[in-house]
Task: structure prediction
Amino acid sequence: MTSADTLTASLEDYLEAIFHIIAEKHAVKPRDIAKRLKVSYASVTGALRALAEKRMIHYTPYDLITLTETGETAAKDVVRRHEVLKDFFVEVLAVPDADADTAACLMEHSIPKAIVERFIEFVEFVETCPRGGDKWIKGFSYQCDHGGKQESCETCVASCVAEVRKRTKKGDEKAVVSYKLKNMKPGQKCRILKVRGRGETNKRILEMGMTPGSVVELERIAPLGDPIDVKVKGYHLSLRKDEAEGIDVELI
Amino acid sequence: MTSADTLTASLEDYLEAIFHIIAEKHAVKPRDIAKRLKVSYASVTGALRALAEKRMIHYTPYDLITLTETGETAAKDVVRRHEVLKDFFVEVLAVPDADADTAACLMEHSIPKAIVERFIEFVEFVETCPRGGDKWIKGFSYQCDHGGKQESCETCVASCVAEVRKRTKKGDEKAVVSYKLKNMKPGQKCRILKVRGRGETNKRILEMGMTPGSVVELERIAPLGDPIDVKVKGYHLSLRKDEAEGIDVELI
DNA sequence: GTAAATAATTAGGGAAGGCTAAATAAATTG
DNA sequence: CAATTTATTTAGCCTTCCCTAATTATTTAC
Result:
């Protein structure tokens, strides 16, 4: 009778933990969860039963725990909220990584969907807009730590102008340097220029927000270049080599 | 035995409600709280007992409810977190007022102190920095709603340059227009230039963050100009006429 | 292949925070 | 001023989520 699809904050934590443990070790036992969440084994049993009842996990006592389709979707959603918050704290508010993570943990359960989307848009906007950018955030960070400006507004704004000139020049001369997605390095961010290929193949790609103009962060390329893990609009996406083949990007 | 000074999310909600009802009607009855929080009367009784036990309110059955010193401090802290979040959502993320309020309600209980302070700094930074400002946020808002740029980066950045020129000119010629705080209108924001007066009188003012350079928003001026309510660094502050007398500001 | 160690489960309990229904106090009104 | 209505409190119950202690299942070691 417990509402079938609603997760409490604590159940979200369990689900998130399960998701991460699967990602790390490919198998989940109650023990791992208890350790990670710092709760007793008995509490884990209770949570697992609740999650199974809500069809989030496959759970038979003494057997390995796996996520159902629903469970995986829900887990990814929680993880995404966490990542988006953390990203914002780190990239925009210039909060130290560890603090950002702690704060994201606390806040991930209560942030509404619409705000999540805005956070994503905003981080992307700041990283992309010539009036924003790394330098601008550094200026903010400096002001937070030292209580004053790092440089005069004149020189600061001047660098905006320079930035725009550089970009315009490139654009005018059709000299935007275009790369293949697969040639990027982990950690690099780039903007999508073109997605080649027939509709069916990259329907999934486009649905996840990998459309021309959007910003992608490369997370990992597996040994033989397959698969390629990227992050778009806060979603993690794993692309097969041939899917990534047809994606052109520019560095930002 | 219930930890004496820690408030649960739900108790924070009750405290916040009590604070607001006092501000509105000068007297609180369980009824008002129940209506505001949409809970049963019985639940209110339980919460009031818990709050009284934690020395947050004065509570005798059938009598009016008032906040203790501790309670008022705690209530103001919750309200501040709410306001800071809402402010950020509205001023930076360009979220509609009502949505921002709802989201702030949900998130106010889990946001860590350090992040609150960063949010304040950031809103102030955006509103103050020539690379940020109203126009910049409007650009972001437009991009969220329409999925494209409102204007070219060139013209956009050009307006930054113009803004800085305007400011520099003023500054160079000592032509910063200085106003008295008391002459501002509700809703206006300004930056503090000078706080006159002997140490004791405005110790409180300075402690609350009303130092030269910080941004103040005027909230309300009572009929005879006393008191003047302002918001600084997310804190609400009520100034007596004579305290406000010695504060010079410039418009931003 | 049994004994010891480890892992997982059941049983039972407590605090928090909500509920409804019944009782009591206060206010209103004919 | 007694009767009715409204406001508040008490009593008892439910759910969530954590705990400890005792029990059962599974592995590991000899």
